[in-house]
Amino acid sequence: MVSGSLTEALLSLPNTSESYKRATQHPFLQRAGTLSLSTDSLQRWLTQDRLYALVGYSAFLGTLIAKLPAPIVGPSSSEGILHRRRLSVLAGAMANIDREVGFFEQVAKDNGLDLAAKSKPTAAQNEVDSHPQTSPGSSLVDLGLLNNITRGYIDFMVSTASRGTFEEGLVLLWAMEKMYLDAWTYASKHLKSEALSSKANQQPGPAKALLQLIPNWSSAEFAQFVKDIGELIDGLDVKIDSDLGKRLQEVWIVTLWYEERFWQAGE
């Protein structure tokens, strides 16, 4: 990121550094990195993350792709090149989420984890209904396995993609992926090299699952994907203090709110 970029401005918003730290350095992540999560904790969190991806992320991304500005120009024009670049990144994100859900399900199956595990009630679950960015009367009337935080997050994602601008949706995509990458990179720093080298000898269970999950979510390939989205954002002609820039700030702040609380599914 170059100095003065839009992504840098979002990352350095006043009064958000502690929220970012809580969202990306949650105790759940430290326990994940030290392989000390219980089966119950990991499968409750994985249940919510799978539903977030399968129910929310895919719907959000489909709507965002549909809103992608498509100039009627030749392929060598600057507008045509930008459109192809955006489409390539977003289409890649959709392919990634399909693979990711399959990966979740295979890792869970191999390690005896239940992806239909009910969440325990937490204080954060009661906060979501009063949050200003939660849609009144969720469209997901029968929550099923969804806890309130996941439901609220999905509502926010879908609402942003459908009612907001393309730019707001793109910032939401980057915010979610950037925080996820930083969170699991933090977890990876607690992962001892000898644990990775002995992965093949691990018995199926939460520790072996984490030895598969953490490297996937902190990989160089994932980091490049996040960088690619960030470059699209930095290419937007938006000033951080403009009306649209202020809406982008709000998207960032609300995403922080949900990301911080999402880890509580594993408590």
TrEMBL record:
<protein>
    <submittedName>
        <fullName>Heme oxygenase-like protein</fullName>
    </submittedName>
</protein>
<dbReference type="InterPro" id="IPR053261">
    <property type="entry name" value="Polyketide-peptide_reg"/>
</dbReference>
<dbReference type="InterPro" id="IPR016084">
    <property type="entry name" value="Haem_Oase-like_multi-hlx"/>
</dbReference>
